[in-house]
Amino acid sequence: MWRRVTLDVHLDHPPARVFRYFADPGTWPDWAPAVEMRRQVGDGPSSVGSRWSAVDRIIGPFRVRFEDVLEVVEPEERVVWHSTSPWNSRVEYACAPEGGGTRVRADYGGDVAGWLRLVALLPTFVLARILMRDFVGLQRLLDAEDARAHAGSA
Q1: Edge to edge, what strands does the sheet with 51-57 contain?
Q2: In the predicted model, what is the mean pLDDT of residues 10-39?
Q3: Which of 52, 53, 94, 141 has CB 3.0 to 4.6 Å from 105, enough for a Cys bridge?
Q4: Which domains occur in the chain, in start order?
Q5: pLDDT at 154
Q6: Which carries the bigger pLDDT value, residue 123 or residue 118?
Q7: Which long-range contacts (CB under 8 A, 24 or more apart) does 56-65 make?
Q8: What is the mean pLDDT of the chain?
Q9: pLDDT at 58
């Protein structure tokens, strides 16, 4: 079942700080509520073609295992990830400076397989609200980093 959701979000931090979180799946469990684990497959720096073992929490005890593959990276501007089955999806995070922060356009699209098609049946506005929790988490994480830095310099 093919689904697409696009979010347009402002975060109160510059692209250099925001982008690095989208480009590093190892940080995703820190700010994305559904992400349980991301672990790079192989050694070396992450680059186009890098693969990450992934586990997401769906509803309650249900877990989904798959891989994320880095398709495109344009530092501080754009990163694209492909998730293998059962998500069969692609997410693009495009970052642009806006005021003192970052305008993020997140475009999620995919052909969800198996029992996850039940999730794909949710109305678009519900899926958007679920995905929006990631940005709330990232804003909180960046704000907390600022608070710690400010406390350390006081």
Answers
A1: 2-11, 101-111, 89-98, 78-83, 63-74, 51-57, 35-41
A2: 96
A3: 94
A4: 2-153 (3.30.530.20)
A5: 62
A6: 123
A7: 57/33, 58/34, 58/116, 58/119, 59/119, 63/36, 64/116
A8: 93
A9: 83
3-class SS at 45? coil
For residue 73 the two structure tokens come to 């990276």
Distance, CA of 106 to CA of 109 (rounded, Å): 10
**Residue showing tokens 């608070």:** 147
Residue 133: both structure tokens together: 């929790």
What pLDDT is recorded for position 1?
A: 79
Report whether pLDDT(68) > 70: yes
Check residue 48 and give its pLDDT: 95
Q: What is the mean pLDDT of residues 95-102?
A: 96
CB 98 within 8 A of CB 12: no
Name the H helices within 8-91.
Answer: 15-23, 28-31
Among 17, 33, 42, 23, CA closest to 97: 17
